Structure formats: C-alpha cells, structure tokens
Amino acid sequence: MTTNIHKKTLRTMIGAHPELKKLAGLCARQRVKNFAQLGQIAIMNRAAQAPDPGAFLTDLLEKLQAEGAEFDALHEAYETERKVVMDESAPRRQAATNRRFEIAKLVEKLDARVRSSSAQRQVEMKRYRDAGLSVENLAAIKFVYTPEAIAGWQAEIDALKAEAVKLDEFIASGPFYKTELLDGTTLAVAPEALAA
To answer: Which among 80, 160, 172, 194 has most CB atoms closer than 10 A?
Structure first.
C-alpha cells in the first residue's frame, strides 16, 4: 500500500517537473505493450504449476483488482488536487497570459523607438542647425532622443523581457502553477486582486 508520504513525494516530483507526467504515461503505455503478452504467458505457466490453478488465478485477480483500486484512488486524488489548483490559479493564469501579450507589444514599440532614435536625433540636430542655432544653443536644448533616454528605453526593454521569461516559466509550470515564479513581476499580488 502506498503511504501518504510516498503520495506527497510523487505529487511534489510531478509538480516540480511537469514533463514527468507525460514521461510516466509513455512508460506505462510501453510497459503495458511490452509485458501484456509476457504477463499472460507467465500467469498461465504459474497457474499450470500451482496445485489449484483456479484458486491461484482467483487470488491473483483479487490482488490485481486491489492494486487497480489503489491506482484509481491515487489518480482521483491527483485529479482532484489538479482541479483545485487549476480553479485557484485561473485568475493568475489569465493575467499572466494577458500581461505576456502586453509585454510583447511594449517591447516591440520600445525596440522600434530605440532603433529609430539615432536617425531621429540626426533629424532633430539638422533641423536646429538649419534654423541657425549655434553649438552653444544646441547644447542647451533638451533633445528627446538623448543617449540617456535611449539607455532608459533599452533598460525598460530588458526589464520587460526578464518579466516575460518569468511569466513564461509560470505558464509552463502547469498543471500545478508555481506562483513563486511570479515574484518580481507585475503579477506578484494576491489572486483576489487579479479577480477584481
């Protein structure tokens, strides 16, 4: 019989590594495929060697049914826990997805601004020079496309990209969605605030 500690360890492992669920499913299907016929042959062989083949097969069937019931209970517990987590994480998942799309648009906009900033600065400088301003006058003008502004936009792009990575990690952490992955993002708030 599987202990509660063992069940907790399995849930923790699967939560820490979502790909384990998929891998476990593949292993189970392959095991069934490989051992179905071998198992049937082995059971028939053991039954033939048993003093009472009918009693042997009946006992084996009862044991296998008990194991099946235990598996069903574990699976039901897993599904119940997964459903609770899915329901609780729904506002955060939706907010993370929305924020991820918002970040993509902001990065694209800021990136375009940074790429065009050098050309825009040259246009501004030429316009002021053509207007007859001296170098001293140009030094006093606050340009929109200063190196400091460009560095600020680039820093904002880098921060948005870092937030996007954290949001992607959170979204990929399903089905148990690790909310600690949202630390350092704009979504590191209580789920009730997201639902409002």
So the answer is: 160
pLDDT class of 1 with cuts at 50, 70, 90: very low
Report yes or no: 131 and 154 within 8 Å, Cβ to Cβ. no
Domain ranges of the chain: 4-87, 90-195
Closest CA to 12 of 156, 185, 178: 178
Instruction: Determine which helix (DSSP H) or strand (DSSP E) holds 75, and give its type and residue range.
Output: helix 53-130
Q: Assess whether pLDDT exceeds 50 at residue 2.
A: no
176 vs 167: CA distance, rounded Å? 14
The set of residues, in sequence order, having a beta carbon less than 8 Å from that of 171 and lying 6+ positions away, is: 93, 96, 97, 100
Residue 105's alpha-carbon distances to 45, 92, 163, in angstroms, are: 67, 20, 13
Residue (of 97, 65, 114) closest to 182 by Cα position: 97
> How many helices and strands, by DSSP H and E, does the chain display?
6, 0
Distance separating alpha carbons of residues 69 and 77, to the nearest angstrom: 12
Residue with tokens 């992607």: 168
CA–CA distance, 183 with 189 (Å, rounded to integer): 9
Both tokens of 14, joined, read 């699967």
